[in-house]
Amino acid sequence: MTVLVLAAEGGSITPGAHSTVEFLGLTFNIDTIIGTLVAGVIVCGLGLYMARGATKGKPSGLQVAFEALASWVQGQVKEGMGLRAPRGVVGLCITLFAFILTCNWLAALPSEHYVPPPTSDVNLVYPLALLVIIWVNVAGIRRRGAKAYFGHFTKPYAFLAPIEFITQYFARPLSLALRLFGNIFAGGIMVAVIGLMPVYILWAPNAVWKLFDMFIGVIQALIFTLLTLIYFSEAVGSEEEAAH
């Protein structure tokens, strides 16, 4: 997936270059902000369009795709958390998948160098991971109670609590974010390298790579969503566990 605005001028590649502005002493990556807004508008627009045209008779391709995604998420939630899944988990995971996939697929647009996939910027993927981890912990505390939830850090052995704490609040968000960022970023570098090839052979490898990039975009959105579901399942437990 073409990731960041990658400059390939004079035979050189500069990964990680962004269009930025300074405001109140802070630096904002304008291309990432624009890409995020574009992806958000696309997801919301398609959602509203699908909802208005939804029917039980002859569903559109968009409705079939959404229903398949919703069915998969609901199945994973029921299997991992039972019928008493935390409120909003299904909607969160569906939204995450749709948003991340749309962000990744922005690389397929002709304007990829001006509106690059925002998931190629750690300034977006870190907040996404942080949102998931915070929501997971809030759901776990509400389901089990603070004492029981934080008490699981000491099991099976109390001396492992620091390791469990680091895993929960540092390793997981980092791995969740960097797994998405790393794959999209690597794809961007490959596209930039391909862009240095002669014009008469450029179209073939570029077209093939974009198709492969789109496939990787689906896989990365799926992995992020699946890991989110797993984290929720571990935090709240299954319906049977909640009954004991």
Radius of gyration in whole Å, from Cα? 21 Å
Unreliable spans are 1-13, 239-244
Biggest pleated-sheet summary:
2 strands, antiparallel
How many angstroms separate the termini? 46 Å
Helix-strand sequence: EEEEHHHHHHHH
Shape label: globular
Detail the topology: elements first, then pairings.
Blueprint: E1 5-7, E2 14-17, E3 20-23, E4 26-29, H1 30-53, H2 61-81, H3 89-105, H4 122-144, H5 146-151, H6 161-194, H7 199-236, H8 239-243
Antiparallel strand pairs: 1-2, 3-4
Structure commentary:
This protein is mainly α. The protein has one domain. 69% of the residues lie in helices and 6% in strands. The chain contains 8 helices and 4 strands. The strands form 2 sheets. A two-stranded antiparallel ribbon has the order 1-2. The chain has a two-stranded antiparallel ribbon with strand order 3-4. The protein starts with a strand and ends with a helix.
Descriptive keywords:
mainly alpha, 4 strands, globular, disordered N terminus, disordered C terminus
Short description:
By secondary structure, this protein is mainly α. Helix content is 69%, strand content 6%. It has one domain (5-243).
